[in-house]
Amino acid sequence: MNFLEEKIITDGIIKAGNLLKVDNFLNHQIDIDIIRQIAYELKRRFRGETINKILTIEASGIAIATMVGHLYDVPVVFAKKSQTTNSTDDKYMAEAYSFTHQRHNQVFVSRPYLSDTDRVLIVDDFLADGQACMALINLVHQAGGEVVGIGIAIEKGQQPGGDLLRSEGYHLESIAIIDSMDDETQSIRFRSEYN
Ligand code: 5GP
Fold it and tell me: How many domains in the chain?
């Protein structure tokens, strides 16, 4: 088991509805040592790639993205969420259904912060159905930039996002991939256990 899988076993709480709560180190209180290890591991997995921008989505992706941006010494941009569809003159806009909040969000990045010279590493805390990542990919493509890779802390492998992104040819790296979890027994199985 790697450091993140161990942390999930110790501190994660499995809720009904296929939801993993990691408030104690990622989504409310931030454990800097864990975030630092996640960032180093993502950088190691994307070694050799030229990356000049990190892109995430507010709010909980920002902590990891900032630490990754620090390691690459490149700007970190976070897509903002809005429930209204405003003019797209000054921004790139995409739609994402939020798994946790069960509603559609418009997500946007103001035009000056993405461009056709950008080689982007997308970073997020969780990957579930892939909606958030697909929206971020869409924003990069609208700007004419390139998605070099997608770095995720926790992938819920029982949901289709990971398979979808891999089948589309994206270089996706997830540090902990959950294959199954049970809220009644509070048990989790990671994909790494089968390999
Ligand atoms: P997706 O768009 O891939 O379905 O979901 C990714 C987003 O939903 C992430 O940005 C994350 O904030 C949130 N999310 C999805 N599943 C979970 C979960 O089990 N626990 C937590 N804490 N967040 C989740």
Answer: 1
